[in-house]
Amino acid sequence: MTRIKCCGMTRIGDALLAVRLGADAIGLVFSARSKRQVTLAQARGIVVALPPFVATVALFMDDEASLVRQVLDEVRPMLLQFHGDESDGWCAQFGHPFLKAIAMGEGAAALPRLRDYPHATGLLLDGHAAGEAGGSGKAFDWSLLPGGLAQPLILAGGLHAGNVGDAVRTARPWAVDVASGVESAPGIKDPARLKAFIRAVRTVDAE
Ligand SMILES: O=C(O)c1ccccc1N[C@@H]1O[C@H](COP(=O)(O)O)[C@@H](O)[C@H]1O
């Protein structure tokens, strides 16, 4: 079964709906570079409202270590996700499981970076160019996803109900991650798009 992460949640109702429809994980963006940035209080409100067995993921992009520590203390996410130029050692300093996003905008030229994060719990391949923020809606060539890596791969970037089925069939990732493809505006999830996205993934899983 392909795990599904819905990212960029800013409202409790959207997060609960995503979980009710079948999402496995909820992403909360703390980077000031995001149009989906949440405050600590907003994030805490979402995390405490969730039912058991839903993974919570806190996203950062070249942020201060003090912010990451504050989020760990006050929001208590299950996973961290780093989207910037952070090194493996920097990400690992918190002693907390983390995902490292790899910008796939340069295509195959980005693949050697997949070996740079041996401490990551998983690698998230996103469609944007290096240095750009995620949540951009940009896809990449999914056939580039390599097999044989030790870590689970999470496919992200420009996914929506109309293309996620092909993406899963092509890449067979551990999980998919979506932000803009299930929104009506940044940070505002669209119930019909959420439902169609999760249904499209589950349809391919059942093939
Ligand atoms: O969502 C954001 O605003 C964001 C900002 C900074 C770093 C990462 C961000 N989001 C991540 O990007 C993927 C892909 O987004 P999209 O589906 O292409 O819109 C998203 O799932 C988040 O993990």
Number of domains: 1
CATH topology call: TIM Barrel
**Small ligands present:** the ligand O=C(O)c1ccccc1N[C@@H]1O[C@H](COP(=O)(O)O)[C@@H](O)[C@H]1O
* CATH hierarchy: architecture: Alpha-Beta Barrel
Number of strands: 10
Question: How big is the Rg?
Answer: 16 Å
Compute the number of helices.
6
Biggest sheet, open or closed, and with what strands and sense? 8 strands, parallel, barrel
Strand content: 15-25%
Shape: globular
Tell me about this structure.
- The chain has 207 residues and is α/β, with parallel strands linked by helices.
- The protein contains 6 helices and 10 strands, in the order E-H-E-H-E-H-E-H-E-E-E-H-E-E-E-H.
- Strands 1-2-3-4-5-6-7-8 form an 8-stranded parallel barrel. A two-stranded antiparallel sheet has the order 9-10.
- Helix 1 links the parallel strand 1 and strand 2.
- The longest helix has 15 residues.
- The structure holds ligand LGQLAAA5.
- The ligand O=C(O)c1ccccc1N[C@@H]1O[C@H](COP(=O)(O)O)[C@@H](O)[C@H]1O binds next to strand 2 and strand 8.
- The site of the ligand O=C(O)c1ccccc1N[C@@H]1O[C@H](COP(=O)(O)O)[C@@H](O)[C@H]1O has 27 residues, from strand 2 and strand 8.
Task: Give a quick rundown of the structure.
With 207 residues, this protein is an alpha/beta fold. 28% of the residues lie in helices and 21% in strands.
Q: Which features characterize this protein?
A:
single chain; 207 residues; alpha/beta; 8-stranded parallel β-barrel; two-stranded antiparallel ribbon; 6 helices; globular; binds ligand LGQLAAA5
